Amino acid sequence: MIYTEIEPDFAENCSAVILEFVAAGVLRLTGTDTNSDVSIQITDDATMQQYNLEYMGIDAPTDVLSFPVPFQNPETGAPYLGDLLISLPTAARQAEAAGHSVSEEVKLLVVHGMLHLLGHDHATPEEKEAMWKLQDTLLAELGIVARPTE
């Protein structure tokens, strides 16, 4: 099950149904157990900066953070993949710079974050090439027009 939490200030710019559809699509298209549990939180820059400093050592907001927490839910037996946090203000700035909607940027960030939860990374050029290729495939399959700018 995909659990979503959207801060009230951002509810009009973000749809839990769309976030859940994208996350479930990534699970399906990557052959991951579609009964897997994932948590997605849409938050602000201050919260993201706090988490980014605490967990990544970077004192600045970021667009998406992924926290893999692989375990099996004892109540349902479903795999729990982890948590995604997305900063809507950062996503909005990136969307404006890239020339697409905030909704498309958030969908891109869900795909990107889900890939991290599934074990993909972009720390080396080889990892980045493989992850970006898979990400582009998933974006196309899901009909998402946003593409990473880096």
What is the CATH topology classification name?
Answer: Collagenase (Catalytic Domain)
Q: At the first level of CATH, what is the class? A: Alpha Beta
User: What is the radius of gyration?
Assistant: 15 Å
Overall pLDDT level: 91
Main sheet characteristics: 4 strands, mixed
Count every helix, treating DSSP H or I runs of 4 or more residues as helices: 5
Strand order of the largest sheet: 1-2-4-3
User: Are there runs of 5+ residues with pLDDT below 50, and where?
Assistant: none
Domain count: the total is 1
CATH architecture assignment name: 3-Layer(aba) Sandwich
CATH homology-level superfamily: Metalloproteases ("zincins"), catalytic domain
Shape: globular
Query: What's the N-to-C terminus distance?
Result: 31 Å
Strand percentage lies at 15-25%
Order of helices and strands: EHEHEEHHH
Structure description:
The structure is a single chain. The protein is of the alpha/beta class and about 150 residues long. It has one domain (about 1-140): Metalloproteases ("zincins"), catalytic domain (Collagenase (Catalytic Domain), 3-Layer(aba) Sandwich). It has helices at about 15-30, 45-55, 90-100, 100-115, 125-140, and strands at about 1-5, 35-45, 65-70, 80-85. The protein has a four-stranded mixed beta sheet, with helices on both faces. The longest helix is centred in the last third of the chain and has 17 residues, at about 125-140. The protein is globular. The model has no long low-confidence stretch (mean pLDDT about 90).
